[in-house]
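Supplementary Note 3. Input sequence used for the single-chain structure prediction.
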Amino acid sequence: MKNRKSKGLTPREKAAAALILPGMALLCAGQIPAAIAGVALLGAGAVVLNFEEIRAHIKKKAARKPERHTKNYTTTSYQKEKGMSR
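The predicted structure, written as discrete structure tokens, is reproduced below.
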């Protein structure tokens, strides 16, 4: 959250709260389908709340150059002095 003078919530925070609060209520229900729906609502609220950070992370990953991996197919073995043949 950014420092701001007003104590109100941003629209993004309000939308996240609108998803998280019913999700918490559904988790308290004693039925499995309601609990599953509650977990889904909690996850959706978390995504809405952190969407800016998620988008920035994706953009940062997309801006990277692809890494080049080279495979070394040759092997080098070194013999110890004791094991060297004459």
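The first helix runs from residue 11 to 28. The chain has three helices and no strands.
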